[in-house]
Design a protein that fits this description.
Helix content: 40-55%
Oligomer: single chain
Strand order of the largest sheet: 1-2
Distance between the termini: 32 Å
Radius of gyration: 17 Å
Strand content: 5-15%
Largest sheet: 2 strands, antiparallel
Number of helices: 5
Order of helices and strands: EEHHHHEEH
Number of strands: 4
Structural class: mainly alpha
């Protein structure tokens, strides 16, 4: 009996050469790491800069583990960006809108401007 998925050097390979299962597993593991750090992220007494550093050192490492050699499709890039924006929104918290006089979450553009980072895996190969 032949197994369809093989794990080699931390990457899940299959007969179709699709990395969807590997990407889903990496996002799931990064999400677990995010929830472990949730008390840290929710703490109002910790500076945003420190929270971003923690995100970059732990969550990003978990998300990008063993992904350096593979190509990233447009669909994969969108999934990675969605997860990354979720974490950034939580770290940044809501902002007060003076025009509408209410609290709101940051838009995607505001998130990338506030952390001075382009979209996830922008320099990666796109398939």
């Amino acid at each position: 009996m032949r197994d369809e998925n093989i794990k080699y050097l931390g990457v899940i390979l299959n007969e179709d050469n699709k990395n969807q299962t590997d990407l889903q597993k990496r996002i799931k593991n990064a999400n677990k790491t995010y929830f472990i750090l949730q008390k840290f992220v929710n703490n109002k007494h910790i500076a945003k800069k420190l929270k971003l550093r923690q995100k970059n050192t732990t969550i990003d490492r978990t998300l990008r583990c063993a992904s350096e050699t593979g190509t990233v499709t447009e669909r994969d890039r969108k999934k990675l960006n969605i997860f990354e924006r979720k974490v950034y929104r939580k770290v940044s918290g809501p902002v007060y809108d003076n025009e509408k006089e209410n609290w709101r979450i940051l838009t995607n553009k505001e998130i990338y401007e506030s952390v001075k980072k382009t979209h996830c895996d922008r320099d990666s190969k796109v398939k």
